[in-house]
Amino acid sequence: MSITLSKGQRIDLTKGNPGLTKVIIGLGWDTNKYSGGHDFDLDASAFLTDSNGRVQNDTDFIFYNNVKSINGAVEHTGDNRTGEGEGDDEQINVDFSLLPSYVEKIGITVTIHDAEQRGQNFGQVSNAFVRVVDAQTGSEVLRYDLGEDFSIQTAVVVCELYKHGQDWKFNAIGNGFSGGLAALCQNYGLQV
After folding, report:
1. How far apart are CA 188 and CA 114, in angstroms?
2. 91-133 confidence digits (pLDDT tens)
């Protein structure tokens, strides 16, 4: 049975679900009626960080041009350039058992590709969600619907998976950024 979260809520992932080591992070969205003449190309990314929220090296930034972490612990399954269709638009697989010991958080983000040039922002996106699915059983563990309060932002930190002792938890963040992917990279300590 899936749990629905609100912004700011935190929930245990692994302690209450013994044996949960592999999850699928599914992200989805629709675009509002506004088009502006361009498709909306939203991109999911994962930032693997230390306890200070900083990425240690470029290979710990998983996105459409670096789809798999070095040891395969985190993998982006592919770039959906239109968001068409039902269900998840993009997915990121996480195997907690393979994560390096220095990884304490995984920031899951979504950005709009070429947003400024296309005059696009998250105010034109609706029905955005993230869900966590048990990769072994295919059952949804939790879901967080973001709402539509990102009028000018071009990037969103959707959620964070974070380590608490030996267990992993989920934090429904929902914070918007202006400046797209570059702003997110700087937020997580990467040079742009």
Report:
1. 20
2. 999 999 999 999 999 999 998 888 888 888 888 888 889 999 9
Helix (H) or strand (E) holding 185: helix 180-187
First to last CA, the chain: 41
Query: Residue for token digits 């869900």?
Result: 131
pTM: 0.91
Q: Tokens 């912004």, residue?
A: 7
**Polymer length in residues for the chain:** 192
Residue in the structure block whose two tokens are 């592999």: 22
- Cα atoms in the 13 Å half-sphere on the side-chain side of 188: 31
79/89 Cα distance (integer angstroms): 8
Token pair for 155: 């990037």
Residue 182 DSSP one-character state: H
Strands (E), 113-152: 125-134, 140-145
The backbone torsions φ and ψ at residue 97, rounded to the nearest 5 degrees and listed phi first, read -70, -20
For 156, the 3-state DSSP assignment is strand
What are the strands, taking DSSP E only, across 32-84? 42-49, 61-62, 74-76
* Assigned token pair, 191: 């040079």
Which amino acid is located at 51 in the chain?
S
